[in-house]
Amino acid sequence: MVVEIHVPLLATPGLPDGSYPFPWIEEVEDFLSDLEDQGDVEVFDEGEEDGDVYVFFITGAGEGDLLAVASRVATFPGVPAGTLAVVSNDEAEEFGLGRRVALPLPAL
Q1: Which domains can be identified in the chain, with CATH numbers?
Q2: Are 56 and 73 in contact (CB under 8 A)?
Q3: Could you tell me the superkingdom of the organism this chain comes from (predicted)?
Q4: Quick count: other Cβ atoms within 10 Å of Cβ 40?
């Protein structure tokens, strides 16, 4: 199982002129890398731009745990609204083929 985290590729508002418009990408990559170092999840593949979204890939845990990680990503400061998860597998021929889950998940 792979969970794709699809984040709208929108520039962070209010950044100084000349700043990198998507600082949240590095923050999310650092967060996922830390979780991988702790053994909580695995980063399945490098994140990449796909049209108007940036996609992160995680695996190595159950669906509930992976969706909880995706939900945390969706609430990071600067991460644009409209982030969603796609529950897929490593055999999918392209991004976005799978069950879509709105993020962040509702609190239990």
Answers
A1: 2-10+21-102 (3.30.70.260)
A2: yes
A3: Bacteria
A4: 16
